[in-house]
Amino acid sequence: MSVASQILDIRASLPAGVELVAVSKFHPAEAILEAYDTGQRIFGESRVQELKLKAQSLPKDIEWHMIGHLQTNKVRTIAPFVSLVQSVDSQRLIECINSEAARCDRVIDCLLEVHVSSDESKSGWEIDALRDYLASGALSALKNVRIRGIMGMATYTDDTSVIRADFEALAALKRELEPMFDADFNILSMGMSDDYPIAVECGSTMVRVGSRIFGERTY
Ligand SMILES: *Cc1c(COP(=O)(O)O)cnc(C)c1O
């Protein structure tokens, strides 16, 4: 199926209030434009240089989300235009985003990436470390970042009960943290090509779908 028909099918299947991030990493501008022409405006990328080049050459009303691991020395490259950094996984990174956002006179929306899966390799805050950081109050000094919610991934497995438990843990954490923030803390980003229907059942408000739209990636 074409990019356009895939994306229209997926959007039609999502309940109202669930946003679709089209994960276009490793796919060329033409594929992004095909999705764009269906009305898609939110795209996710995982590498800073690729994100920058695509943002320069593609329509200016695209909202670019950074979803991959972000090194502090690369923040400056995307700070002027990124619309949501979904992969904020350390105090050092959040402080860096805050200062780079201040340099370009912006407030940058961020999600706290949380590690709940049993996969060793996945990045993100451990839940207890995140609780400790938030309890420290350090975040209140950062005026140029706005925490919009949390992002996470389920364990890479065929066992849907494990996947569901991971998504439920993320949803529970979002509810636990809500009282520490204002009403802008309203994004629960979870669900990818293979598991987004389960994520939606567990309360996802934002799914990040790549290969199901654009086909397999060749790295
Ligand atoms: C690549 C990626 C996705 C999309 O993965 P697909 O399985 O291709 O849908 C979603 N979220 C993150 C953080 C990713 O790195």
Task: Report on the architecture of this protein.
This protein has 219 residues and is of the alpha/beta class. The protein has a single domain, classed as Alanine racemase (TIM Barrel, Alpha-Beta Barrel). Helices cover 38% and strands 18% of the residues. It has an 8-stranded parallel beta sheet with strand order 7-6-5-4-3-2-1-8. The protein is globular and about 50 Å long. 39% of the residues are buried. The model has no long low-confidence stretch (mean pLDDT 96). The site of pyridoxal-5'-phosphate (PLP) has 12 residues, from strand 8 and helix 9.
Report on the biggest sheet. Answer: 8 strands, parallel
Question: In CATH, what is the homologous superfamily?
Answer: Alanine racemase
What global shape is seen?
globular
CATH level 3 topology: TIM Barrel
The proportion of residues forming helix, as a percent range, comes to: 25-40%
Features:
219 residues, alpha/beta, TIM Barrel, 8-stranded parallel β-sheet, 9 helices, 38% helix, 18% strand, globular, binds pyridoxal-5'-phosphate
